[in-house]
Specification:
463 residues; mainly alpha; Serine Threonine Protein Phosphatase 5, Tetratricopeptide repeat; 25 helices; Ankyrin_rpt
């Protein structure tokens, strides 16, 4: 790569405001294979990221100053002392090792080279020494990271500039699709982001980039991007901020939506449901202040209450009860498009304390799903939730009651969000709780049912 030098990037010290982003064209690298999960975890600190294996074999972790040690280390293979010299900033030791034939491109089992170690620590002198010794700028660690990627991870912007001036490939991409811009955004390096977007052959911002910044709550960077390209604010971007509990970020994103009001309403409503599902109560309250509708549902008919119950977020349920006392019971009494009431979703998750709360709010623990005749007991048994089964038994649910029932009910179709009349005259062949336990291999539940199914019920059993 020495003959291929990109134009040096001057890192921008001033705040990035009103930069000219690219709204069209094709990204420099494919992003289709990249998901936000690949950018979720921050890297370990420099002391562990690049050199956790350096001291294997009893090599001391002290600065190297012993000439005899330098001259007696075998230099034709992997040379841990050069890595250690790079990690401790021992320039003279590294110089002596290189003079004695040390391989500057040697790597450990993780693929880490001395240049990567020096880059992670921001040691310009060591990096320049290794570059002068023809260290390979394109060498990759096991995960596909180059020294340039490593420098960006650790916020060593001076090293990024140095490596780019030396000819490092600004557009190198790891096998998982992560490139320099992904890293810069994930770590919140506004100066580096600005430089990459202002380069002669610039990167192009996408929705995924804003999603990363939103997830990590890099509010200034998010504001920069939203100001320049508000069209990048989408459902997935807002949800990334919501699920991470980023109040300020969510405000910035919603304020930046300039598209029609009905689209903004749809985004806010969707974010409300996501906040309920992820238990982000503070964000949920913010979204209600921003105009989210408490009665909103997703494309399968789940409301805030459905999602809160499904994921056992009692605080969300209590919030709805506090702010919308007249809406809670109707929401709890409304099935989704699969015919499931909130009590069925609580049973599916095995949330017996939620079932207890729902019963206290007047919900029946004997409610049947409108598509298969399952009661909460059937659902809990099928999913193997022993504690929920014992709770429902204690509340008088009948182990003998079959799933089969004759009901006629109209439900929205699940097909592509269309609505049609679906009449269910008869459900699946009747199965008792014992049948379901045996069918799904839940032996502990089957034994419990066998021991207790002949006991008289403590509560009147609903038909």
């Amino acid at each position: 790569m020495r003959g291929h030098v990109h134009r040096p990037l001057a890192l921008v010290a001033a705040a990035l405001v009103g930069f000219q982003g690219n709204s069209g064209g094709t990204p420099r690298r494919p992003f289709g294979s990249t998901s936000i999960s690949q950018c979720q975890n921050k890297p370990p600190p420099p002391t562990t990221l690049q050199h956790r294996r350096l001291f294997a074999g009893g090599v001391p972790d002290t600065p190297l100053t012993n000439d005899r040690l330098v001259k007696t280390i075998p230099l034709n293979q992997y040379t841990p002392t050069l890595h250690i010299a790079a990690s401790s900033g021992s320039v003279q030791v590294a110089t002596d090792l290189i003079a004695n034939g040390a391989n500057v491109n040697a790597s450990d089992v993780a693929g880490t080279t001395p240049l990567m170690v020096a880059a992670s620590l921001g040691d310009q002198t060591m990096c320049q020494l290794l570059l002068d010794a023809n260290a390979d700028l394109d060498a990759t660690a096991v995960d596909g990271s180059t020294a340039l990627h490593v420098a960006a991870y650790h916020g060593q912007l001076d090293i990024v500039t140095l490596l780019l001036q030396a000819g490092a490939d600004m557009y190198a991409t790891r096998p998982d699709g992560i490139d320099l811009l992904h890293i810069a955004i994930r770590e919140g390096h506004r100066q580096l982001v600005a430089a990459l977007l202002l380069a002669k052959d610039p990167y192009i911002l996408t929705e995924f980039h804003l999603e990363i910044a939103s997830k990590w709550g890099h509010d200034q960077l998010v504001a920069d991007v939203v100001s320049a390209q508000p069209h990048l604010v989408t459902f997935s971007v807002v949800n990334a901020a919501v699920e991470s509990g980023r109040l300020a970020t969510t405000r910035i994103l919603l304020a930046g939506i300039t598209r029609p009001s009905d689209l903004r309403q749809a985004i806010v409503n969707g974010a409300l449901l996501h906040a309920a599902a992820t238990g982000q109560l503070a964000v949920l309250q913010l979204l209600l202040e921003e105009g989210a509708e408490i009665t909103a549902t997703d494309d399968i008919g789940n409301s805030v209450v459905h999602w809160a119950v499904r994921h056992n977020h009692l605080d969300v349920l209590l919030c709805v009860l506090h702010h919308f006392p007249d809406q809670l019971i109707p929401l709890l009494s409304t099935p989704n498009h699969a015919g499931e009431f909130p009590v069925h979703l609580a049973a599916r998750g095995g949330h017996w304390t939620m079932l207890q709360r729902l019963e206290g709010l007047g919900m029946s623990l004997h409610e049947r799903c409108l598509t298969n005749g399952f009661t909460p007991l059937h659902v809990a048994v099928m999913h193997g939730h022993f504690k929920a089964v014992t709770f429902l038994h204690a509340r008088g649910c009948n182990f003998h009651q079959p799933t089969e029932v004759v009901v006629t009910h109209n439900l929205p179709s699940l097909s592509r969000g269309l609505t049609c009349v679906c009449t269910f005259d008869q459900y699946l062949t009747g199965k008792s709780a014992s049948d379901l336990a045996a069918q799904h291999g839940h032996d502990e539940i089957a034994q419990f049912i066998a021991q207790h199914q002949r006991e008289p019920s403590q509560h009147a059993n609903a038909a």
